[in-house]
Design goal:
Blueprint lengths: L9 E4 L4 E8 L2 E4 L2 E8 L2 E4 L4 E13 L2 E14 L4 E13 L4 E8 L15
Parallel strand pairs: 1-3, 2-4, 3-5, 4-6, 5-6, 6-7, 7-8, 8-9
Protein backbone atom coordinates (compact mmCIF):
# COMPACT_ATOMS: atom_id res chain seq x y z
CA UNK A 1 0.00 0.00 0.00
CA UNK A 2 1.23 3.46 -0.90
CA UNK A 3 1.15 6.51 1.30
CA UNK A 4 -1.86 8.00 -0.58
CA UNK A 5 -4.00 4.83 -0.58
CA UNK A 6 -6.04 6.03 2.41
CA UNK A 7 -7.25 9.43 1.18
CA UNK A 8 -10.40 9.33 3.34
CA UNK A 9 -8.48 10.31 6.50
CA UNK A 10 -9.80 12.82 9.03
CA UNK A 11 -7.86 16.08 9.24
CA UNK A 12 -7.99 18.29 12.34
CA UNK A 13 -7.43 21.98 13.05
CA UNK A 14 -7.38 22.25 16.83
CA UNK A 15 -8.49 24.90 19.29
CA UNK A 16 -6.07 27.81 19.41
CA UNK A 17 -4.92 27.31 15.81
CA UNK A 18 -5.61 29.92 13.11
CA UNK A 19 -5.15 29.09 9.42
CA UNK A 20 -5.27 31.70 6.67
CA UNK A 21 -5.62 30.63 3.03
CA UNK A 22 -7.12 27.71 1.12
CA UNK A 23 -7.42 24.16 2.44
CA UNK A 24 -8.24 21.25 0.09
CA UNK A 25 -8.78 17.68 1.26
CA UNK A 26 -9.95 14.44 -0.35
CA UNK A 27 -10.99 13.16 3.08
CA UNK A 28 -12.91 14.80 5.94
CA UNK A 29 -11.97 17.63 8.28
CA UNK A 30 -12.87 18.86 11.75
CA UNK A 31 -12.16 22.47 12.67
CA UNK A 32 -12.10 23.54 16.31
CA UNK A 33 -9.80 26.50 15.62
CA UNK A 34 -10.19 29.35 13.13
CA UNK A 35 -10.00 29.39 9.33
CA UNK A 36 -9.85 32.61 7.33
CA UNK A 37 -10.16 31.70 3.67
CA UNK A 38 -11.54 28.77 1.71
CA UNK A 39 -12.22 25.14 2.63
CA UNK A 40 -12.82 22.55 -0.12
CA UNK A 41 -13.45 19.01 1.15
CA UNK A 42 -14.50 15.94 -0.87
CA UNK A 43 -16.16 14.25 2.10
CA UNK A 44 -17.42 15.73 5.39
CA UNK A 45 -16.61 19.02 7.10
CA UNK A 46 -17.36 19.46 10.81
CA UNK A 47 -17.03 22.77 12.64
CA UNK A 48 -16.93 22.30 16.41
CA UNK A 49 -18.50 24.73 18.92
CA UNK A 50 -15.18 26.59 19.33
CA UNK A 51 -14.58 26.64 15.56
CA UNK A 52 -14.81 29.75 13.38
CA UNK A 53 -14.70 30.17 9.61
CA UNK A 54 -14.56 33.46 7.72
CA UNK A 55 -14.85 32.62 4.04
CA UNK A 56 -16.17 29.77 1.91
CA UNK A 57 -16.92 26.17 2.94
CA UNK A 58 -17.56 23.56 0.22
CA UNK A 59 -18.04 19.85 1.11
CA UNK A 60 -20.32 16.85 0.58
CA UNK A 61 -21.83 17.04 4.09
CA UNK A 62 -21.29 19.93 6.50
CA UNK A 63 -22.09 20.09 10.22
CA UNK A 64 -21.72 23.46 11.92
CA UNK A 65 -21.53 23.84 15.69
CA UNK A 66 -19.54 27.10 15.75
CA UNK A 67 -19.47 30.39 13.82
CA UNK A 68 -19.37 30.91 10.05
CA UNK A 69 -19.37 34.20 8.18
CA UNK A 70 -19.43 33.63 4.43
CA UNK A 71 -20.69 31.09 1.90
CA UNK A 72 -21.52 27.48 2.78
CA UNK A 73 -22.07 24.94 -0.02
CA UNK A 74 -23.08 21.37 0.87
CA UNK A 75 -23.46 18.95 -2.04
CA UNK A 76 -25.75 16.78 0.10
CA UNK A 77 -26.60 17.70 3.72
CA UNK A 78 -26.03 20.82 5.83
CA UNK A 79 -26.64 20.67 9.60
CA UNK A 80 -26.71 23.63 12.00
CA UNK A 81 -26.27 22.35 15.54
CA UNK A 82 -27.89 24.22 18.45
CA UNK A 83 -24.83 26.47 19.10
CA UNK A 84 -24.28 27.32 15.40
CA UNK A 85 -24.13 30.96 14.31
CA UNK A 86 -24.11 31.38 10.53
CA UNK A 87 -24.14 34.64 8.57
CA UNK A 88 -24.07 34.56 4.79
CA UNK A 89 -25.30 32.46 1.89
CA UNK A 90 -25.99 28.73 2.11
CA UNK A 91 -26.65 26.17 -0.63
CA UNK A 92 -27.64 22.58 0.10
CA UNK A 93 -29.85 19.72 -1.04
CA UNK A 94 -30.92 19.01 2.58
CA UNK A 95 -30.92 21.43 5.51
CA UNK A 96 -31.32 20.63 9.20
CA UNK A 97 -31.44 23.46 11.76
CA UNK A 98 -31.52 22.50 15.44
CA UNK A 99 -33.35 24.63 17.98
CA UNK A 100 -31.09 27.41 19.22
CA UNK A 101 -29.07 27.79 16.02
CA UNK A 102 -28.82 31.28 14.52
CA UNK A 103 -28.91 31.85 10.75
CA UNK A 104 -28.83 35.30 9.14
CA UNK A 105 -28.60 35.24 5.37
CA UNK A 106 -29.98 33.64 2.23
CA UNK A 107 -30.50 30.00 1.39
CA UNK A 108 -30.92 28.00 -1.81
CA UNK A 109 -32.27 24.47 -1.61
CA UNK A 110 -32.85 22.15 -4.52
CA UNK A 111 -32.94 18.45 -5.32
CA UNK A 112 -30.14 19.16 -7.76
CA UNK A 113 -26.90 18.92 -5.82
CA UNK A 114 -24.89 22.17 -5.75
CA UNK A 115 -21.69 22.06 -7.79
CA UNK A 116 -18.92 20.76 -5.55
CA UNK A 117 -15.40 21.84 -6.41
CA UNK A 118 -12.96 19.06 -7.22
CA UNK A 119 -9.88 18.60 -5.09
CA UNK A 120 -6.55 17.76 -6.77
CA UNK A 121 -6.39 14.09 -7.69
CA UNK A 122 -10.14 13.55 -7.26
CA UNK A 123 -11.73 11.31 -9.88
CA UNK A 124 -14.84 12.56 -11.70
Amino acid sequence: MGKNDNVKDLNLIGTGTTVEGKIKSQGSIRIDGKLIGELVVSENAFLGESGQIEGTVNARNITIGGKVHGEVIAAEKLVFESKANVKGEIKAAKLIIEEGAVFDGTSVMTNEKPQQQKTPGQKT
